Amino acid sequence: MKKILVVDDEKEICTFFSYLLKRKGYDVTTVQSGREALNIIAAEKFHLAMLDLKLPDSDGLTLLKKIKETNCRCQVIIMTGYSTVKSAISAMQNGALDYIEKPFDDIGELEQLIDHALSTTSYARDGDLLEMAAESGIILGENQQMLQLIGMARRIAAKNVTVLIQGETGTGKEVLARFIHNCSKRGVNPFIPINCAAISENLLESELFGYEKGAFTGANKDRKGFFEIASSGTLFLDEIGEASLSTQAKLLRVLETGEYIPVGGEKVRRTDSRIIAATNVILDEAVHNRAFRQDLFYRLDVLTLKIPPLRERPEDIPLYLDYFLRRFTEGKELGVRGFAPETVDILCAYEWPGNVRELINLVQKLVTVVDEPLLLPRHLPEKVKRRKNVDDITTNFDDSGNIAGIFEHDAGLWVDRLVE
Ligand SMILES: Nc1ncnc2c1ncn2[C@@H]1O[C@H](COP(=O)(O)OP(=O)(O)OP(=O)(O)O)[C@@H](O)[C@H]1O
Ligand SMILES: [Mg+2]
Predict the structure, then answer these.
(1) pLDDT, mean over the chain
(2) CA distances in angstroms from 400 to 278, 381, 395, 403, listed in the order given
(3) Which residues in the chain are classed under CATH 3.40.50.2300?
(4) Average pLDDT over residues 41-55
(5) Which of 112, 138, 198, 362 is 20 to 30 A from 379 in CA distance terms?
(6) How would residue 391 be classed by pLDDT, with cut points 50, 70 and 90?
(7) In the chain, % of residues over pLDDT 70
(8) Nearest-ligand number for the alpha carbon of 241
């Protein structure tokens, strides 16, 4: 019989769980203090622990750590009030499976969560996750940090929390945002990307909030803004770090209250859109330099997902190379069949400043330009081979007929040719 521990200082919660879970055939133990919890954790092993985040003599995070130390296979669900969602999320980053907000208004969801927790040992490497990620265009390899990140994104997708995605250019911030959207109940509703750096300051307000007829010359009918179009969907605020201070102030207001007024309008409107923001600048530094509002940063920074750059996950590079090679050659009469192992070594050592986007572009160029079955080191552009740490690899293979020079030189032309 599956054993569940419930720790909550409210007696009613304990009684509720005893009743609910016993009826479902589980063996339930309830305790109301951190001290009792620690005693019982030391003495018994549980399959699942439901921990209140705030206890009079302790807290859920401390208990979580203790549980994971003594029995790492015990699943943990954190119970939290609205005000402590951020701590609950950090508990998830420390090994809790999930969190649920009190009061529980959907018992069905609670039961599902518990049944799920008891039926899995780990979300991390489940095939379903790889498939769901792939549907959004994310290919996952062996890198544990990436697997954890995507697992976390998937688990958090159903919650309405704001997500901040950080990562260098081309690391997949937008695909990750779409993945979160697709995994949530909002997936059937619109996903609206807005590039905060690209929209001019003047336009931004009417783009975001819409306008009413007569708001300004040329406004001859009402127009919906993104906050209305994305209501019940997801608004993706890309390059949020580039938003001007006055735009930041306007955004803060909607994020705090969910309310806004269209340009030229009087009536306040409400939006229920979920916000996912992305940035390739380190926002805490921008806050420090007063280029970014601290209050907006706190609003956005409930859950921050940092996508590691490609050079920090070289073990995934061979997988990406093969995947995109297949994708670009499938069904086409192209000569290229694969990468020579030495070529893969060089590409794994390259820094990839443009990350996955750069890798995709390179593979696409190579398969179009090279007409030999194997991609050899000599086919690679100079800048890729020029890396310090691959000098010894390249010298072994630096033979005649090097097309790298042409490659660099005519890259623009080729790209033009590739546009389908
Ligand atoms: N893990 C991945 N698997 C497969 N494709 C990926 C992955 N990560 C990124 N990509 C692809 O790389 C390209 C760049 O991704 P995306 O536009 O999401 O990056 P970004 O971080 O938003 O970049 P930027 O900061 O320049 O806007 C896209 O074609 C995307 O599909
Ligand atoms: Mg982007």
Answers:
(1) 88
(2) 45, 14, 12, 9
(3) 3-119
(4) 94
(5) 138
(6) very low
(7) 90
(8) 1
Q: Say which ligand is closest to the CA of 174.
A: 1
Residues of the chain with CATH 3.40.50.300: 130-306
Q: Which of 139, 142, 163, 171 to probe ligand 1 with, by most ligand atoms within 8 A of CB?
A: 171
Q: Which atom of ligand 1 is nearest to the CA of 139?
A: 3
Confidence tier at 317 by pLDDT (50, 70, 90): very high
Strands, E assignment, 221-333: 234-238, 259-260, 269-270, 274-279, 303-306
Predicted local distance difference test score (pLDDT) of residue 119: 86
Q: Is 52 in the pocket of ligand 1 (CB under 6 A)?
A: no
- Residues of the chain within CATH 1.10.8.60 domain(s) are 311-418
CATH 3.40.50.300 correct for 130-306: yes
pLDDT of amino acid 250: 87
Task: Kindly state if the Cβ of 309 falls inside 6 Å of ligand 1.
Answer: no
Report the topology of domain 311-418: Helicase, Ruva Protein; domain 3 (1.10.8)
Ligand 2 centroid–CA 362 distance in Å is 19
Q: CATH classification of 3-119 is 3.40.50.300, yes or no?
A: no
